[in-house]
Design goal:
The structure is a single chain. Helix content is 46%, strand content 12%. It is α/β, with parallel strands linked by helices. The chain has a 6-stranded mixed sheet. It has a 4-stranded parallel sheet with strand order 2-1-3-8, with helices on both faces. A 4-stranded mixed sheet has the order 5-4-7-6. β1, α2 and β2 form a beta-alpha-beta unit. α26 runs parallel beside α28 and α27 packs parallel to α29. The chain is globular and about 70 Å long. The protein starts with 6 loop residues before the first helix and ends in a 5-residue tail after the last helix.
Length: 719
């Protein structure tokens, strides 16, 4: 596969003097873009050389992703390739059959078009361990290529190099000028010795379930990671979506500040929009009426048929005892313009960004789709290409989990590590660096750390000697990757004794992969952690494990943590994964003993209603083993298991796998769903059943799926 690579003929090659600790960086650019932006890209290469990189400029007409991946892999094998940047028209790999490598993306690949149900991901280029099967090229969008993750591939991401993308959002000369302007400002920023002392964080409507306890805890992490930002009144600014009726002007003013180093966005998003707020909270009768009328107008405009509009009006009039004046003018030009302006004030859209010219050097888009580079124009791309000083966006190409930490190892930015070096150790399938991955802030700490060491003793010494929590967290991660034999006891010791939120979180996250009993013991302890994020994830993982010993703790958190909105949400989620009667019995026991709950009858009634409302999902899952149902119905029921790990039915599912008369299509879908039971207390049974199936004469697709699930479950059975 890798036998043909003639650098002299195919690439323009620029080399700097190599040192004993050579760092090779590949500048990958399409031929036409390089011809039009040669001076700026060459200046970027020289700037990298002054920072100690050996640079390779790989310029040609890149026809397929396979061609580029082979080239990068060949360089990686021969030289110390650490990273790459993809500039201009570079093929986009669209990954399928790997949704377990994302944080949240679970779109049905059979029901939705490939362009929607695949994940655009540069993990194809930067993780050489992953194995893909080529499917084909998109028939309409020619730079999209589809790949399926193979059953023979590792079922985890461990990037070999870091990578970033710079993609013009305009065509022709205007697009080339975007590229030229971008690299001029990158080179200029590389000359500065800028430390991290100004940070802004914005939390939008709906993020973290609008939990104030989740929002406030971010300040503790930021204080550990970026202490210099806490030394002046403007060093740290934290904003929340309902601090004003419309927050857009406030956010825009912060984006225009020339001194901001890092800007965090926690919110919902699309490729074309950042959702800052919803409709403003109404105060008083007139404001409430106006808000209701606007909701009615929006709904009527979305309804396509006149009959549908008339039905909606009649329904609302009967339900709310209102008359037709509530809907007057909904389709008038004046009202459409007014509502459109209100809507624009609730978010940042693509057209806003060239007028804002964002200045924060690094922007973290903790949101869905803001980094969707399969689109011609997308939020993160417009940010870096605007006239401001924004150099890097960390953004997601598809939807992302709300309960994903966006702060992991980010304190390394304060210590001189590059954005790429951080993301190398935190990548998921959808996370991407939009911009220059070598960008870093000034600090002399980075030079004292050998990031690429594979020595356990070295990382143990770093862990013991460093005073920086994120370097300790990095050392923990490296020790886990190197299979340090005493890692479990080390994780427990650090979690139980560390004062640092970020370090306890790292120990918590790594322990997730190890012995189930010890991780379960940690959950009973960590559910009371002072850090809200750890508390909510502890409950989430209790549900994912499904061990009945967690029921008393989950009930207790549900009853008495009513101010922690996201924690309570995860308690409700966990209910789905336990036998309902066991939950009810324990709830009644604790309710009876409670001295603080006054209206016990109401509280019990609400609890029973919640349990009953979720039983319909469990009943739906019963279709999985019902052979009288259509295959489509059974497969839809099987897909529910990805989010809802019904541990109590695992024995029935495994019996189905053992049934020689069951179709391999059903079995393959079921095995894929069981691959999401990575923490289940029944996972050893699932693993044994899948391994047994591999001993028989079976079809290639079924075998491939069995291999994937065996590898996925095996990742979480470490002792």
């Amino acid at each position: 596969m890798y036998k043909k690579l003639i650098l002299i003929a195919l690439f323009v090659l620029t080399l700097s003097v190599a040192s004993s600790a050579e760092r090779v960086f590949a500048i990958v650019v399409d031929k036409t873009t390089y011809e039009n932006c040669r001076s700026e890209i060459d200046d970027y290469s020289l700037a990298l050389q002054s920072e100690g990189f050996t640079t390779l400029i790989l310029s040609k007409l890149w026809e397929t992703p396979m061609q580029l991946r082979d080239s990068l892999f060949s360089i990686y094998n021969r030289q110390s390739l650490v990273g790459a940047i993809f500039i201009g028209d570079i093929p986009i790999a669209m990954i399928r059959d790997a949704q377990h490598l994302t944080s949240a993306f679970k779109m049905d690949q059979n029901q939705f078009p490939m362009i929607q149900s695949s994940v655009p991901s540069d993990r194809y280029y930067d993780d050489f361990n992953l194995v893909f099967n080529y499917i084909g090229r998109d028939t309409s969008v020619k730079n999209l290529f589809y790949f399926s993750l193979s059953g023979s591939s590792p079922q985890k991401i461990r990037s070999s190099i870091y990578s970033g993308r710079v993609k013009p959002t305009k065509d022709g000369e205007v697009g080339y000028e975007q590229i030229r302007r971008y690299f001029r400002k990158v080179v200029e920023q590389k000359r500065e010795k800028n430390i991290v002392d100004n940070i802004v964080s914005y939390t939008g409507e709906g993020s973290f379930s609008n939990s104030m306890t989740a929002w406030k805890d971010e300040i503790f992490i930021l204080n550990e990671q970026f202490p210099a930002a806490f030394k002046s009144k403007d060093g740290l600014k934290m904003f929340y979506y309902d601090m004003a009726p419309y927050m857009k002007d406030i956010v825009v003013d912060q984006l225009r500040r020339d001194d901001v180093d890092i800007f965090y966005f926690h919110m919902h998003g699309m490729p074309y929009r950042q959702y800052l707020t919803s409709a403003p909270l109404s105060k008083g009768g007139r404001a409430n009426i106006a808000a209701a009328k606007r909701l009615f107008r929006d709904a009527l405009r979305k309804e396509s048929s006149q009959n549908g509009k008339d039905s909606l009006k009649k329904y609302w009039q009967n339900l709310f005892f209102i008359d037709s004046t509530w809907f007057e003018g909904y389709n008038s030009r004046e009202m459409i313009v007014k509502d459109s302006l209100d809507d624009i004030n609730m978010g940042i859209v693509l057209e806003d960004i060239p007028n804002i010219n964002p200045n924060p050097r690094v922007v973290i888009f903790d949101a869905c789709y803001n980094g969707d580079f399969r689109e011609k124009s997308f939020i993160a791309g417009e940010y870096i290409l605007a006239n401001g000083n924004n150099i890097v966006g960390i953004a997601n190409s598809v939807n992302v989990l709300q309960d994903k930490s966006s702060s992991d190892l980010m304190g390394l930015l304060n210590l001189g590590f590059s954005v790429g070096e951080i993301m190398l150790n935190t990548n998921i399938l959808e996370s991407h660096i939009i911009g220059d991955p070598t960008f870093c802030f000034f600090s002399d700490i980075r030079e004292s750390i050998n990031l690429y060491s594979n020595s356990i003793s070295y990382w143990m010494s770093v862990l013991e000697s460093s005073s920086y929590p994120d370097i300790k967290a990095l050392a923990l991660y490296k020790l886990s990757q190197l299979n340090y034999p005493e890692i479990e006891s080390l994780l427990r010791e650090i979690y139980c004794n560390s004062q640092y939120y970020s370090l306890r979180l790292q120990a918590f996250n790594i322990h997730y992969f190890y012995c189930q009993k010890f991780f379960g013991d940690m959950l009973l302890y960590s559910v009371n952690d002072p850090y809200e994020y750890i508390r909510r994830k502890s409950l989430f993982y209790m549900g994912k494990i499904g061990d009945p010993r967690f029921i008393p703790t989950i009930i207790q958190m549900y009853l008495y943590n009513y101010l922690d909105a996201r924690v309570k949400f995860n308690a409700l989620f966990a209910f789905d994964n336990f036998e309902p009667q066991l939950l009810i019995d324990e709830f009644d026991r604790q309710l009876q003993l409670s001295n603080s709950i006054i209206d016990k009858e109401r509280v019990r009634s609400e609890f029973i209603a919640r349990i009953e409302s979720r039983k319909s999902i469990a009943r739906m899952v019963s279709a999985i083993t019902d052979k009288t149902k259509e295959e489509k119905v059974r497969v839809n029921a099987i897909r529910v298991l990805r989010n809802n790990n019904y541990h109590m039915f695992v024995d029935e599912y495994l019996e189905l796998l053992r049934d020689p008369n069951e179709s391999e299509f059903i079995k393959s879908n079921l095995v894929e769903a069981l691959g999401w039971f990575v923490l289940s207390y029944k996972r050893s049974d699932i693993l044994a059943a899948c391994k047994k199936e591999l001993e028989y004469e079976i079809g290639d697709e079924y075998r491939d799926q069995l291999q994937k699930t065996v590898l996925r479950l095996g990742l979480f059975i470490k002792h």
